[in-house]
Design brief:
mainly alpha, 8 helices, about 0% strand
């Protein structure tokens, strides 16, 4: 029994899996060690089957050198799209890190073996909460669907607009900073006022020993404020999902 496989469609399928696999290697939570490497490979190959119909018009180079350049290009495209997506969704984690700094929880840092980095209490908590909200709202399906549509806007064999990608990355950095500050700023302001009030209390009435109640009060106040901020996070995740789709489309050359 002899099984024959058409060479050009098979190469197009493998090149598509490179773009998708590179995206999964960067974007959380798929980039975490909690997702096995074999699962990422299988998921990339499975999604390549989904876009197999749109790969028929792709130009596959015949020479080995050109094929290697195309493979590297597809990997770079996937990494660029994944980096921008990761940058946008990490804004919620950065907001949790800011809360840790001003709430006094930054001293309780620990090494995260799954993310291979140091994480703080609310930084890790906000990261997990953002992932849960993303999956519950179906935003992960929209983002993955946007990634698959890039094969229509930027077929295999075409080169992306590098100059336009610079502006996308710069805007993603701006959105990352603004979103993190917007989420954490109300809590930071309240915690700063609380610190200021306790500092004045130690000067006005030193016999009260306000330093003994400062840390428990700040912990309780931080927990209360974080609980009050929960209704804001779903709207932030929806907005970040829209911006991720827009950024992926812009890198692929499809505009906003």
């Amino acid at each position: 029994m002899t099984i024959t496989i058409a060479g050009e469609p098979a190469l197009a399928f493998l090149l598509a899996s490179l773009r998708i696999g590179a995206w999964f290697a960067v974007v959380p939570p798929f980039s975490s060690r909690a997702v096995p490497m074999m699962a990422k490979v299988i998921l990339s190959l499975a999604l390549s089957f989904v876009v197999a119909g749109s790969l028929s018009g792709s130009e596959i180079p015949a020479s080995e050198g050109a094929l290697l350049v195309t493979a590297l290009t597809q990997t770079a495209i996937g990494l660029a799209m994944g980096f921008v997506t990761m940058l946008l969704f990490t804004a919620v984690t950065a907001a949790g890190g800011l809360i840790d700094v001003f709430g006094g929880f930054s001293l309780a840092q620990g090494f995260d073996p799954l993310g291979m980095n140091s994480s703080t209490v609310f930084g890790k908590f906000h990261q997990m909460l953002a992932v849960v909200l993303l999956f519950v709202s179906g935003g992960h399906l929209l983002v993955i669907g946007g990634l698959l549509r890039t094969f229509e806007m930027l077929p295999i064999g075409d080169s992306p607009d590098i100059e336009g990608s610079y502006g996308v990355v710069a805007r993603a950095f701006g959105v990352f900073f603004v979103t993190a500050v917007q989420i954490a700023l109300p809590m930071i302001a309240v915690l700063f006022v609380a610190d200021l009030g306790l500092a004045l209390m130690t000067k006005v009435a030193p016999q009260l020993q306000a330093i003994n109640v400062m840390f428990p009060a700040k912990i309780g106040l931080t927990l209360l404020l974080v609980g009050l901020s929960f209704p804001v996070l779903p709207e932030a995740i929806d907005r970040l999902t829209e911006l991720a789709l827009e950024a992926i489309g812009t890198i692929a050359g499809g505009g906003g």
